[in-house]
## 1
Amino acid sequence: MKKIIVLVVLLSVFFSGFGIYNYLSQHGDFIKTSHSLVVRDLLSGGNILFISYRFQWEGFGSPEITKVDFLKGDGSIVQDDEILIETYITENDFGMLREVDMINENLKDQLLPIESYKVDKNFTLVLGIKLLDENFNNDIQTVRIFYKKLGKNLVQDISFKEGVILEE
């Protein structure tokens, strides 16, 4: 009888611990707190523009970003032969700047690689954009963030319904 009681207690502790771990590892969201747009004409001629988006982590722990993908309005992943997007992290939320301005203001040196970035609370996602196909007309509508938290791989889609490229 004592063995059964000990077994029930141990199983209860195990499943309670697993439930708590599962909740804590999945609890939390990235919230976009700023949005910038770039006018298509500024991307012509091979210009590289940098656009910043401020994010806030609301949840337990410090997730580690592993990758970011960009989805078009039709749900397909943006291809490198249409538009080249390099992603970075920084503390500065600058809106939109040309590459030459980023260099002149020493902001380009402050860009960190996104892979393995450990999120504290607030961070700025920076997109370095170069339009490769002048006919690219399906704007970015979703940013998909892949991240790790407490050893668990997670994904969150964040709406960019405002788009990134403004047609004018």
## 2
Amino acid sequence: MYGRLTAFNARTGDHLGRYRVADGSYSASPLVGRQVKLRVVPDDGGAFRYRNATMFTDGDPVTVRSDGGTHLDFTAPAQR
């Protein structure tokens, strides 16, 4: 997946940074130790998503780790 990832403070919603996602990976060292909510916008024109949600308020917060990262899945859930 290629696209843009935007980080927001999980509590306040303040914008913290924008990152380019290539091959499903990104680097966000300035965010280490922070609780963030991440929004991904795919380059293929698909809808933006937060982790496990389509709205900021429902997105799962993530703590950015310094030990090599965390695997996050932004795949849209199957329609029922």
## 3
Amino acid sequence: MKLSEIETITGRVEDGAWVRSIPDLPGLALKVRGADCTAAHLLRRKLLMEMPEEARRNLSDAESERIALEVMIHVLLVDWNITEDGPADADGKPEQVPVPCTPVYARAALTDPKTLLLREAVSWASRYVALLGEASLEIDGKKSVTS
């Protein structure tokens, strides 16, 4: 293996890359950082250190889930290709309007029981970004979003 290949993989993990072919969600693409990236470790540590020592020693499932969600929102999930129906076009067909990948939208989407599959997708993609990550997202053969 070339050193440059290792650098590329490390870049995907640390800076993020687009992941497609996500199980159960065809058409979804997520730009994510690797689950073990430096920023994720730092945020986990920061959130743990903000807790009382006793709570850290006996971390509840709820606290563990809260920390995982914060890391997912603020570090792992960088961007997505999610849209919603907008105003109708001349043919009466709704225009697809991009949903911005902000912490507010991400929190809403990742905590809504109706979109729980998205949370699982972000988790899956963050584990596979080193192997499957792409520098840009192409739609209909045209580069539309870059990292």
